[in-house]
Specification:
This protein is an alpha+beta fold and 199 residues long. The chain has helices at residues 7-22, 49-61, 89-102, 120-129, 152-162, and strands at 2-5, 37-38, 66-75, 81-85, 141-145, 166-179, 185-193. It is 32% helix and 25% strand.
Length: 199
């Protein structure tokens, strides 16, 4: 399950991807993956797709599009690159709601990833919800690269820290997809959009 951002956020990812491309690095956006912020990622039991769709559609009908700010560029120790999303209580609540609604449909036998075992709070979350990155561990971001080998990423990171990418946009809906090992959508199954806020 993922949050769908509006055009200004997508444009920022596109511009940042162009900067990466000039240095010979190809982002997930450049590879055609949809721009998204993961809300809840786990394995589900066979045959649960329709129930997931119903639950997500019901949540979407209770929300309106809300403001979000993308700001800053992060490179992790394992050379993943993100555009950060500023903390939003509405985005946090959306992730919490989605997790609570569809957690009962998850596969309880999903193997715990090795890296999770080094973080006690993430391990507890995984054992309870099938995901290490929910509730207090929710850190929304827009992934650009994973396990990047190019040494130019460090150079670009310095440039980005000097002038961090920033855009004001909205979260406009929730998508359901099948993810690859990097949390990117191999296949988008459904997208549900919030009612627009006319106030």
């Amino acid at each position: 399950m993922f949050a769908i951002p509006s055009k200004p956020i997508i444009n920022l990812v596109e511009q940042t991807s162009d900067a990466l491309k000039k240095q010979g690095m190809i982002s997930f956006y450049e590879k055609g993956k949809p721009v998204h912020a993961t809300l809840y990622l786990t394995d589900f039991t066979e045959g649960s797709e329709e129930a997931i769709k119903r639950a997500v559609k019901a949540i979407t009908e209770q929300h309106q599009a809300f403001a979000i700010t993308a700001q800053g560029f992060t490179v992790t120790q394992s050379n993943w690159a993100f555009i950060n999303l500023q903390y939003s209580s509405k985005l946090q609540r959306l992730s919490d709601e989605v997790t609570m609604a569809i957690e009962p449909l998850r596969d309880p036998n999903t193997a715990i990833p090795d890296w999770v075992k080094n973080y006690p709070n993430k391990l507890m979350a995984f054992e309870r919800y099938g995901s290490p990155n929910v509730f207090q561990n929710f850190q929304p971001h827009l992934t650009l690269l994973a396990n990047e080998k190019s040494p130019k990423l460090a150079i670009l990171n310095k440039q980005m820290q000097a002038k961090p990418p920033r855009a004001e946009g909205k979260i406009v809906g929730i998508g359901i997809g099948i993810s690859d090992q990097f949390g990117q959508q191999k296949q988008v199954i459904a997208e549900y959009f919030f009612q627009s806020d006319n106030n």
